[in-house]
Amino acid sequence: MIGEHVLAGYVNDAGGREALDLASAIVALTGGRLSVATVHPAGLPAAAGEARALLDQVADLLDDRPADLHVQEGRSVARGLTALASRIGADLIVVGSPEGGARGRIGIGAAADHLLHSATEAVMLAPSGYTPPDYLGRITVMYVRRPQCDEAVIRAAQAAERLEVPLRLVTLAIGDLGGDDGAERLRDDLALAIRLALDSSELLPEEVSADLAEGDDVADAMEDVDWPDDELLVCASSEDAAAHRVFLGEVALKVLRAAPCPVTVLPRGYF
Prior knowledge:
Layout: E1 5-9, H1 14-30, E2 33-40, H2 45-61, E3 68-73, H3 77-88, E4 92-95, H4 110-115, E5 122-125, E6 138-142, H5 147-163, E7 167-174, H6 180-199, E8 208-215, H7 218-222, E9 231-236, H8 250-258, E10 263-266
Parallel strand pairs: 1-2, 1-4, 2-3, 4-5, 6-7, 6-9, 7-8, 9-10
Antiparallel strand pairs: 5-10
């Protein structure tokens, strides 16, 4: 299950603090290990000193919660976080949204954009202004019938079982589906995905649900279903992703921008 070792990318702004809070909340749920890193450019001693000074702030923000603190050199923040995650064995990288974006929505800065198209670990993004709730209420998987999404269903079902929360599968029905037959095919796919979730975990049938979210576009469809404050959304990488890497497709990117809750993107072949 993801979250056994969480790496938070910290910068000195609201997004950095929100990433730290979200990473801490995930570790509290999973009982895993927390690492926090600041990344600085290579060959600049002054930048390394500034990065160490930033980490001094983190100890106060953590309120005595245990964490490993790292100053990491990198050609970019994303490259530094990926290299560090690989070296220390982190399975999830958490980053926040840039300041100035829409509150309650995920903004994608340069680091997040790079991670979402090349990371070898799962990537989680916090919406702007996000405060983690005291508990996790549900895990939702954005589903379309293809192998990567089936993998996401299996992993999310196992996580839901371990964390003792329900699982929901959501399929977007955008625009004209070709009448009732098109919608029925999507519902049939969801029924198969429910069976997959049940077969790969100890979840009870009443703990797994599915919604068909209908709308004229992705943002409209996302508003067709409920998103409680205690939700966590999981997306699979595109079929264009290289093995064991994250690559977010066009539709998933629109989902991420419209989601009012944290989103985790799994690498292709995440097992």
